[in-house]
Design a protein that fits this description.
Elements (H helix, E strand, L loop, with lengths): L3 E3 L4 H11 L7 H15 L2 E4 L9 E9 L1 H6 L6 H13 L5 E4 L9 H9 L3 E5 L12 H4 L7 E4 L5 E4 L4 H14 L3 E5 L3 E2 H7 L1 E2 L1 H17 L5 H8 L2 E16 L2 E10 L7 E7 L1 E7 L4 E4 L3 E6 L16 E7 L8 H7 L19
Parallel strand pairs: 2-5, 3-4, 4-5
Antiparallel strand pairs: 1-2, 3-8, 3-9, 5-10, 6-7, 6-8, 11-12, 11-17, 12-13, 13-14, 14-15, 16-17
């Protein structure tokens, strides 16, 4: 891996790649792309560096959106919240950040760090904390490695902000979620302040370059009038779960999360079959009509519009939409007992033990 520079023009591919890896969550990629493009055009390109380029005693801080993605579609950020959260966390720590980190691979949360990096002149680390998107803030590999989520700052679009110190990352999630709900269902946050040494141990390396590469594949395939599903499965060693049309969608915002279930009627080679996908901000479990498990968290369930080949987020699901669902293996850190305790199916209330994607029948 080598460092690279991101311009405003690169944000189209990055938004696509982040939305695909985001497993339906992470926020609307279009909003984040516009924010990042505007700030990069104003302040200049962003340098993405490898973890090894940073000193062990450097200060690294992730910035992201917290809340229900469906809320952010209707309640647009004003563009200053993430920078304000970062500035207040720096003031609390009494030290300026040396680099920023992307907390997750997701639509909005893959692009917000670029906007903040451009505005502040800080480099962005080529890595993230999930390799996909998850709904709760303790669900990052930094938790596995003992990095504290606090002190954490939340900022909203009205100018409110707060600092949280908590006894655990799970308690940070609980306290921050309550405040996020009161802030209108979504907030911009700075959290998990860590040293360069902690960052090198705790993150998943290469995420930003992978997101960009995925977006470039999607752009190239679409220009060639090909659905990018096959090219993506080949590049990522993925597995087609099904192709189907949405026939029913149950979606609601509960406790700061977008929760629900989508039912699909099979198309093409899946004609005559039916499938369900359940989500909590992100797609978490996929089953066939016989309750056969096809994919389950922490492995990735990624959705593409079967007609246009664009990533589909949970808030974009609607009756009649044709979708190709693709399964990808998660990072091996999530296969550990500590990883599965954080993001395995039983944490989300599913009566399944984790089964790796490659062991599923299809």
């Amino acid at each position: 891996m080598t460092s690279f520079t991101v311009t405003a023009d690169d944000m189209d591919a990055i938004a696509l790649g982040g939305a695909f890896l985001g497993t339906g969550g992470g926020g609307d990629p279009y909003i984040g792309k516009l924010m990042a493009k505007q700030v990069i055009a104003q302040h200049g390109p962003v340098k993405v560096i490898t973890a090894d380029e940073l000193d062990d005693d450097a200060l690294c801080i992730p910035v992201c959106m917290m809340g229900a993605p469906t809320v952010m579609v209707e309640k647009l950020p004003n563009g200053n919240e993430a920078r304000e959260a970062l500035a207040q966390l720096e003031a609390f720590l009494g030290r300026k950040a040396d680099a920023l980190i992307c907390i997750e691979a997701g639509g909005l949360n893959s692009t917000i760090p670029y906007a903040v990096a451009a505005a502040t002149g800080l480099p962005l680390i080529d890595g993230d904390g999930m390799g996909r998107a998850f709904p709760e803030l303790q669900m990052v590999t930094m938790t596995i490695h003992g990095v504290s989520a606090t002190p954490m700052v939340l900022a909203d679009d009205k100018g409110n902000s707060s600092v949280i110190n908590a006894i655990s990352n799970k308690w940070t999630e609980r306290l921050a979620r309550c405040q996020t709900v009161e802030m209108g269902g979504a907030a911009l946050v700075a959290l998990y302040p860590m040293s360069g040494a902690e960052m090198k141990r705790g993150i998943l390396h290469g995420s930003m370059s992978l997101i960009k590469a995925i977006g470039e594949i999607m752009t190239s395939e679409r220009k060639a009038i090909r659905n990018p599903a096959e090219a993506l499965m080949k590049r990522l060693d993925g597995k087609r779960l099904f192709t189907g049309r949405v026939v029913d969608i149950d979606r609601r915002t509960v406790g700061g999360f977008a929760r629900g279930k989508a039912e699909f009627k099979g198309m093409d080679e899946d004609e005559g079959r039916s499938f369900t996908v359940e989500f909590q901000n992100e797609f978490l479990i996929c089953r066939s009509e016989a309750d056969e498990l096809l994919a389950v968290t922490p492995d990735l369930i990624c959705a593409l519009d079967a007609d246009g080949g664009m990533p589909v987020t949970t808030e974009q699901l609607r009756y009649g939409l044709a979708v190709t669902a693709i399964g990808l293996a998660c990072d091996p850190q999530w296969w550990t007992p500590e990883g599965l305790e954080l993001v395995g199916p039983r944490y989300f209330g599913y009566e399944h033990d984790y089964a790796p994607l490659h062991q599923m029948s299809r």
